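Q: Could you fold this chain for me?
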Amino acid sequence: MTAECAVPAARAFGFLVDGAMLGRWALGCWQTEARGEGLFVGRSLFDGGEVWVRPVGDERLLTVDYHVGASPDALLPRIMARVVPGPVAGRRADTCLVSLLAWRGREMDDTRWHRLVACHEVEILLIQALLRG
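A: Sure. Below is the predicted structure, expressed as structure tokens.
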């Protein structure tokens, strides 16, 4: 999923790499709380279960890998955000493109995968709105 956002790329990247902000837009990791060492815990809006996440950003590439799991010792880099500066995509310098990508684990059935895809459709709109706001 990709959306054009009305902010410079650096601002979008800072927002996406911030684990506290993640808790405002990630439906599967709502209301995140810091646990130290770049680790956050949130709650799934679907079943209330704990979800642990460590956002790992690369400022040079404008990417964020979200290492996600049911516990701190079970984190895998399954979700990625990418920011493309507006001028690179033929747009104004005060805009950017934000994309969310997900890898489907072997254990993920069709129902769960469909839910993740639907969530990303909503989450990209939430990111766009929160950055605008």
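A (continued): The longest helix spans residues 110-132.
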